[in-house]
């Protein structure tokens, strides 16, 4: 029934042996159902190692290999899967993203490239033990410096921030070349892809989705800013969306930095359309308020269906901003960068916000944008103040659902740390009905129950491509840009 000839044998990370065979007259579906699925990955790997070893010694001895039927089935499956690109099982020694440094073996398969750039490469893969999809961001590691992105990611644990599951190092093709691999949870969509979908169909994103996305973005910013961390590259491409749950997660901390007072920072940071004016003015002592400006640009873009400040260059970016906000005053310029106070700019009046947006745009949305896009950094509201804004009041109502009738994802599972950031806002941030439910379940005022800190378990929305529900594109999206930084950055 099973006729096989050995072709090659390989060894991956000193753990998994594979043999290639030519197999005739076999029902693949029957074998995979009868043997592979019930036994699971670990058992199949064990049988594969045993069978491969038996074949190897049989070849040396010139005798027929003595292999049980189920082991032959495992060998067949190994052969079939080995013929597919990316299906090779890779086993590495990786360190968990959070907690103590306790390296462990992690195996993954079905690897394929989903993104690349100057920073490195991003792969999609599947963990063998759990069948969970992950994104692996591979960047060249400068041995002289610690990787800032890794150090920051290990500190973060929040339900609206992509989770670092593991990290490990691998060798490159060149001598002494070392790569850092960040194993991140995989989220299939981005806000950028959603906006493109609606733009191509000449539709506007439903206000309810804009509220849902922006609220979660502000919540993630409130968390990282409370730790002194500035993301420095807020844009739709870095906002991941899960179409099944409606959860938004901030990703790509390749440009992020823990800002220290008195320590200079590079001003050429952040993608152009979302770059705060103080960065354009060359400031090197900026604050986390540059993220607030970027978030305001994202909100305006979702409302407009296109970027609000589409500059072709750094200078043109400032021109686009002045067209809307008007020429900054001398005092505003001083607040952005004192070195620019002697420069003269043509005097242009600000454009009324009501005329910037469509007639049907909710006034609360316009008011929020105006409070985010302020020239003076200190005049911009904080992320948590944005969460408490009346624009998001609908999310705090008792029976609010997504347009398709599904429940909202967890929005009020605040940790004690989050509630300590600006306690005066807690009475607004925590809906009365949610606080009562939390107290009744023994979760306390924070409302952290079974969801816990940094988790999102509630069911959310399913996606259908119409204007009354969350529309997603077919292709998966994981954004990753930036890499190791050193010196003043």
UniProtKB/TrEMBL annotation:
GO terms for molecular function: ATP binding; protein serine/threonine kinase activity. The keyword Nucleotide-binding applies. It comes from Timema poppense (Walking stick). Keywords: ATP-binding, Kinase, Nucleotide-binding, Serine/threonine-protein kinase, Transferase. Belongs to the protein kinase superfamily. CMGC Ser/Thr protein kinase family. GSK-3 subfamily. InterPro entries: GSK-3 (IPR050591), Kinase-like_dom_sf (IPR011009), Prot_kinase_dom (IPR000719), Protein_kinase_ATP_BS (IPR017441), Ser/Thr_kinase_AS (IPR008271), STKc_GSK3 (IPR039192). One of its GO terms (cellular component) is axon. Residues 108-392 form the Protein kinase domain. Pfam families: Pkinase. ATP binds at residue 138. The keyword Acetylation does not apply. Residues 455-472 have a biased composition (Polar residues). SUPFAM superfamilies: Protein kinase-like (PK-like) (SSF56112). Residues 436-489 are annotated as: Disordered. This is Protein kinase domain-containing protein. Signal peptide: none annotated. GO terms for biological process: cell differentiation; gamete generation; negative regulation of canonical Wnt signaling pathway; positive regulation of proteasomal ubiquitin-dependent protein catabolic process; regulation of microtubule cytoskeleton organization; signal transduction. Gene3D superfamilies: Phosphorylase Kinase, domain 1, Transferase(Phosphotransferase) domain 1.
């Amino acid at each position: 029934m099973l006729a096989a000839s050995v072709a090659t044998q390989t060894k991956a990370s000193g753990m998994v042996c594979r043999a290639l065979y030519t197999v005739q007259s076999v029902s693949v579906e029957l074998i995979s159902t009868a043997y592979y699925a019930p036994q699971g990955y670990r058992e199949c790997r064990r049988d594969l190692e045993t069978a491969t070893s038996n074949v190897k010694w049989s070849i040396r001895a010139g005798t027929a290999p003595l292999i049980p039927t189920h082991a032959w089935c495992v060998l067949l499956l190994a052969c079939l899967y080995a013929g597919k690109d990316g299906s090779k099982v890779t086993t590495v020694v990786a360190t968990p993203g959070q907690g103590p440094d306790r390296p462990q073996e992690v195996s993954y398969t079905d690897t394929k490239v989903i993104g690349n750039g100057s920073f490195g490469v991003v792969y999609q893969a599947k963990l063998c033990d759990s069948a969970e999809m992950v994104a692996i961001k591979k960047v060249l590691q400068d041995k002289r410096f610690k990787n800032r992105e890794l150090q920051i990611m290990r500190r973060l644990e929040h339900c609206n921030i992509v989770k670092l599951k593991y990290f490990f190092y691998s060798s490159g093709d060149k001598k002494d070349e070392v790569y850092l691999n960040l194993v991140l949870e995989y989220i299939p969509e981005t806000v950028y892809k959603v906006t493109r979908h609606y733009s191509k169909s000449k539709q506007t994103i439903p206000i309810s989705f804009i509220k849902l996305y922006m609220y979660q973005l502000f919540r993630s910013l409130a968390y990282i800013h409370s730790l002194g961390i500035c993301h420095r590259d807020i844009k739709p491409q870095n906002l991941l969306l899960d179409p099944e749950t409606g959860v938004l997660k901030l990703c790509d901390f390749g440009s992020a930095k823990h800002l220290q007072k008195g320590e200079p920072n590079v001003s050429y940071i952040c993608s152009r359309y979302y770059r705060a004016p103080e960065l354009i003015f060359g400031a090197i002592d900026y604050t986390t308020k540059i993220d607030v400006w970027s978030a305001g640009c994202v909100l305006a873009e979702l409302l407009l269906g296109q970027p609000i400040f589409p500059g072709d260059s750094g200078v043109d970016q400032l021109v686009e901003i002045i067209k809307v906000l008007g020429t900054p005053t001398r005092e505003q310029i001083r607040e952005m960068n004192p070195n620019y106070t002697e420069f003269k700019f043509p005097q242009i009046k600000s454009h009324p916000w009501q005329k910037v947006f469509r007639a049907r745009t909710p006034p609360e949305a316009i008011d929020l944008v105006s409070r985010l896009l302020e020239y003076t950094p200190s005049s911009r509201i904080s992320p948590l103040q944005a969460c408490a804004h009346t624009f998001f009041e609908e999310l705090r109502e008792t029976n609010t659902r997504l347009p398709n009738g599904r429940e909202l994802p967890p929005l009020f599972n605040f940790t004690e740390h989050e509630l300590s950031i600006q306690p005066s806002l807690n009475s607004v941030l925590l809906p009365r009905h949610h606080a009562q439910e939390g107290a009744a379940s023994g979760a306390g005022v924070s409302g952290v129950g079974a969801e816990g800190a940094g988790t999102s378990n509630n069911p959310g929305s399913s996606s259908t491509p119409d204007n009354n529900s969350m529309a997603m594109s077919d292709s998966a999206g994981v954004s990753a840009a930036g890499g190791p930084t050193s010196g003043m950055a």
